[in-house]
Amino acid sequence: MKKALVTVSALVMTAAGFMGCQKSGNSSVVLNKDKPLVFFNRQPSDPTTGQIEKDTMNWNSKTYYVGFDAAGGGAVQGKLITDWLAKQDASKIDRNGDGTIGYVLCVGDVGHNDSKARTEGIRKALGTWNGTTDPTDSKIGSVKIGGKTLKVVELEGKAMTGTDGSTWNANAATDAMGGWATKYGTQLDMVVSNNDGMAMGCLQASNYPAGVPIFGYDANADAIEAIGSGKLTGTVSQNVDAQATATLQVIRNLLDGLEGEDVYKKGIFEADSNGNKISAEITYVPETKAVLALNAGVNSDNWKQYTAGNRDKGIKQTNAAKKKVLLTIYNAADNFLSSSYLPALNYYAPLLNLDLTVVQGDGQNEASCLDKFTNLNSFDAYAINMVKTNSGRDYTDKLKY
């Protein structure tokens, strides 16, 4: 009889493994569907309406989103631009002296909440907001420059999509900028971009008009250097270290069995048992289970504070057991994620005793990530950065089994 019981037990465990189970160190079985799941950088949402996908965010009690305050960031970028303009000489900014500031807008992804927020923030600050984030829909605005009020016209807005279908494409921005410089001549007084990658792409255009101010977003290392050298006028830091650390800290807290407010507070808003606490400002939105870093404008006055290598000294070595995390990045070629976010993740993960397995997509097809979202039983938690913001269910469907 005893031998039969052992055989039945073995069969049960085999079936559990087949259904996507994993035996942890404390001998309890954890189904993939019950493991921590953190979406980051791309919030599960409808690409048309921007509405948060509640079904995805409520996949289980351990599902969270970590990003930054997108709406707030758009406003910060808008203020960065108008504050800079207010201090300038109108006769120098208005290149053809027609009393109108003409600008072009590089749009990242028309279906991305962050891109929409930045477009809205820019247009509201310049008075060109016409109620939509459509790249072609704006109105005549106004702005103060050196005490004078000038009209503002968005000469053209364009979504930067590469020949391979990838969005936020720097090469597409280079090509667009070359065309804009020729088409608009001295009517073009300013360039604004939804991110640094596209802004730096614009600067690569051989005919970029010398002295024309250009603003980006992300505070990537090359953009910060460009501000220091006078090539880029300004950018916005979305506090990448805070985002990367929060992504990992939420996972760490969930793996350590924390519940309720402790999941998004410990090590983030307040010190955890190891004395860890993120230094940058963070906010939490309970309705969407979102941990968000706040934004800061960067220009020639403060760019040195954002140079590469300034890691958060508030994060120290944890003594918790090492755990394995499968993490996806939507596009290996994305400038912000590859040059800023991933290095930050790789810096903080060992401090939190998290062993990362990173898989990267092509920025175009969800399958480029999903096909690598495998061996799920081998991991204790998952961190997902989707190609499309409405693809959350594709990932949770794989965690059912």
Automatic annotation (TrEMBL):
InterPro entries in the cross-refs: Bact_Solute-Bind_Prot2, MglB-2_Peripla_BP, Peripla_BP_I, SBP_2_dom
Coiled coil: none
Gene3D superfamilies named in the record: 3.40.50.2300
Swiss-Prot/TrEMBL keywords: Signal, Sugar transport, Transport
Transport keyword on record: yes
Domain Periplasmic binding protein, residue spans: 36-257
Main location: other
Single GO cellular component term: outer membrane-bounded periplasmic space
Entry keyword Metal-binding: no
A Pfam entry, by short name: Peripla_BP_7
Entries under PROSITE patterns matching the protein: PROKAR_LIPOPROTEIN (PS51257)
Residues annotated as domain MglB-2 periplasmic binding protein: 322-392
Any GO molecular function: carbohydrate binding
Location(s), subcellular: Cell envelope
Matches recorded under PANTHER family: D-GALACTOSE_METHYL-GALACTOSIDE BINDING PERIPLASMIC PROTEIN MGLB, D-XYLOSE-BINDING PERIPLASMIC PROTEIN
Similarity-based family: Belongs to the bacterial solute-binding protein 2 family.
The name this protein goes by in its record: Monosaccharide ABC transporter substrate-binding protein, CUT2 family (TC 3.A.1.2.-)
Source organism (scientific name): Treponema berlinense
